[in-house]
Write a structure and sequence with these properties.
The protein is mainly alpha-helical and 97 residues long. It has three helices and no strands. It has two domains: 35 residues; 34 residues, no CATH class. InterPro entries: Sel_put (IPR007423).
Length: 97
Amino acid sequence: MARAHNSSESGTPVAETGGPAADRSRFEELGVRAGRAVLRVAAGIRWYVTSLMGDNAYATYLAHHRRTHPDAQPLSERQFWRQRMDDQDRNPGARCC
């Protein structure tokens, strides 16, 4: 690895390239960053879809119930979904179908 000479026009040194190993390392780091970004986006999409479809509604209900009614017994999951479906049938205004 030879050090590059000073530029005659600006008088500032030219940075070393580091060779093929450094380029490979930079590309690997870029790949790792891109992979992490893809995983974050996928996790966000998964969260959005499960929230939209109501997949986490029972867990949300349990957390709310523990906070607001710590002494009361929560509904079973089956009872929760039955009540939720009955409520939607009685009040279909927020549904598309």
